[in-house]
Amino acid sequence: MSSTTMHEGDASFVIEPGDVVSDPLHRDAVVGEVGAVDRHGRKMVEVVVQGWRFECTVEDAERAALQARASRPRTAGETRGGPLEIRAIIPGRIAAVSVVAGDSVLAGQAVLVVEAMKMQNELRAPRDGTISRVAVASGQTIEIGDLLVVLA
Amino acid sequence: MTARSHPGAVSLRTDKPAPPFARILVANRGEIAVRIMRTCRDLGIQTVAVYSDADADALHVRMADVAVRLGPAPAGESYLLVDSIIAAALATGAEAIHPGYGFLSERSSFARAVIDAGIVFVGPTPEAIDGLGDKLIARRTVSALDVPVVPGTFEAAPVDRPDDVAVIVAAAEQIGFPLMVKAAAGGGGRGMRRVVSAGELPAALATASAEAYAAFGDGSVYLEREVQPARHIEVQLLGDHHGGVVALGERDCSIQRRHQKLVEESPAPGLTADERTALHAMAVRVARAAGLQSAATAEFLFDTARRFWFLEVNARLQVEHGVTELVTDLDIVAEQLWIAAGAPLSDRVHAAAESSLAPGRHAMEVRLYAEDPSRAFAPSPGRITSWAMPSSMGVRVDTGVRAGDRVPPDYDAMIAKIMTVGPDRQTAIARMRRALRETEITGIQTTLPFGRAVVDDAAFIEGTGLSTGWVLERWDGEASRTEVAHVAARIAAGVAAVGTVTGRTDDLVSVRKDTDRPGAGGAPADSAWRNSGRSAAVDRWPR
């Protein structure tokens, strides 16, 4: 049995042996890179549909269900999960930082600006919270994956 | 086979004129460098490429007869180095330099330095570049020609003299809000700010001026009324060194985002013959007054009351020049080279200018950028793994990128121009819709889904939706992407599960896989996909 989930949690879909996997949009899709199975039993498959590129993580459905149960919040009131590490998704240079540790922010509030490819890219808080740490400073060069801000 | 051996046989060979230059240097990169070099090859001109470390394996470098390294990736250490480029031209015996667009193409100091070194500059004179590049000077010149300019100021705003603030606010109130604060040394949409009320004005002036100074070395700013909604319509101009100037047709470039053009077409839909004639005449008047030589574009806004307002002149070859080439069947770069060598405007050019008032063809262009249209067009640099461009009836693709190339983050994100042409607008659109469906790119996200949405949009097809605010009003990238996420999931599950699904493999075979193409398919055992988070992303990019 396999299930597919997206990196961003957009969609998950379970297929079982014997399933017919077809969709009219299949003809408007291209499969790109297919990765090897990693140590968690997951495989990355790149699919581009109507020009939209997805990096799909495919894993065994039973394992995926176990994972989901394990990461479900324990208490009813705990909906936010732990502190959120916000990492760089593009390389570039920090052009401006508009918060410091201790600041309360609202979802959508501008937190910092990354300059890349001759454009300014604003990073916004994905949810309400408090900045527990600012890991970069204005003028700093960053790579993909670098920690930028921790939102508690 | 010669005429001698077969009595009555006619030789089809005609005498080709000698090329305008023996060798030229192309001071640019990417698709425009490739495009210029292709014309050089057509004409029998040898080419010299210049490149940064990020472009050492780039197509334009491989294509050229000689290549000279300029420096590390950042443009300021490579493609903007005036002295290095001129030295490269002298060392390689290049007789002329074509600057392309962007980079140094509108820097009069570069044009001057090239000329002083005894090399021909394929472009306007330094004086014309100065006169047109300073938007304030251009506005003054043009309004004296009885060509309507966007209402606004004609002097640099007194940004740092607090006593004069009242004066500028009064001027602003005359113009009316909302208005635009623009950089005099800017252009192409850079260094601008929108102001909705008098209270915002002093701060907007100060920040716009600071930005302009940082970007262009000149902090002068001026005010212009915001003309919205409006269409952006521009005229392709060509001038020789003998005073000859013609208009080769207009393009509608209204589909823009943050003043970055995304879709262009020619002729501008819906213009009457009189409007077209008047527009071309205004553009030629401006070009003559500026003493324009070589190629340039005069940009206008066309408001809902069907009035044209002069915006600016770009004294260079533009990205979208190919659209005009398709309608006119002219090679504008070739004509630039003939002009630069001293020839008067050719008969081809004159014929094209005449028929541009009633063109019998329609062409359009969709630009592809390495940007993610579901995340506010955030840049998406990375390595392109597969790259299949459309072709056949009425399709032209200009690109400098091939499969396996990295799109570096150091330069503009545009990676390809997909153009179509046909006898009428509907054919050009139908061909574009087909061409975009044939376009396949993996490895990075591009703006392809956005391009497809535009040419599928009913208002675009009817020609009624065109205005520079169109993107903001109609595009929801996140929603568009989410709509097909489930399809990607299914396909990925099918691909991953091949081998474990029994009995129904025929439908799975209909999913095209790269596993059949050499080099694709399963990654090696130490694949980056084994690792999570940062290392997976880093390995994916600088491979």
Largest sheet of chain A: 5 strands, antiparallel
Order of strands across the main sheet of chain B? 13-12-9-10-11-14-21-19
Order of helices and strands of chain A: EEEEEHEEEEEEEE
> Helicity of chain A, in percent?
under 10%
Rounded Rg of chain A: 19 Å
> Gyration radius of chain B, to the nearest Å?
25 Å
Task: Give the end-to-end Cα distance of chain B, rounded to a whole number of Å.
Answer: 53 Å
Mean pLDDT across all residues of chain A, rounded?
A: 75
- Tell me which protein chains meet in the greatest interface and how many residues each side has: A-B, 60 and 76 residues
Q: What is the approximate shape of chain B?
A: globular
Strand content of chain B: 15-25%
Q: How far from one another are the termini of chain A? A: 37 Å
Q: Could you tell me the strand content of chain A as a percent range?
A: over 45%
Helical segment count of chain A: 1
Question: How would you describe the shape of chain A?
Answer: globular
Summing up helix and strand content along with how strands pair, one would put the structural category of chain A as mainly beta
Low-confidence stretches of chain A: 74-79
Low-pLDDT runs of chain B:
499-543
Biggest sheet layout of chain B: 8 strands, antiparallel
In short:
The complex is a heterodimer of chains A (152) and B (543). Chain A has 152 residues and is mainly beta.
Q: What would your notes on this structure say?
A:
The complex is a heterodimer of chains A (152) and B (543). Chain A has 152 residues and is mainly beta. Chain A contains one helix and 13 strands. In chain A, strand 3 and strand 4 form a beta hairpin. Chain A starts with a strand and ends with a strand. With 543 residues, chain B is of the alpha+beta class. Chain B is built from 19 helices and 22 strands. In chain B, the strands form six sheets. Chain B has an eight-stranded antiparallel sheet with strand order 13-12-9-10-11-14-21-19, sandwiched between helices. A five-stranded parallel sheet of chain B has the order 3-2-1-4-5. In chain B, strand 9 and strand 10 form a beta hairpin. In chain B, helix 4 packs antiparallel against helix 5 and helix 13 runs antiparallel to helix 14. The radius of gyration of chain B is 25 Å and the shape is globular. The C terminus of chain B is likely disordered. The chains are: A mainly beta (152), B alpha+beta (543).
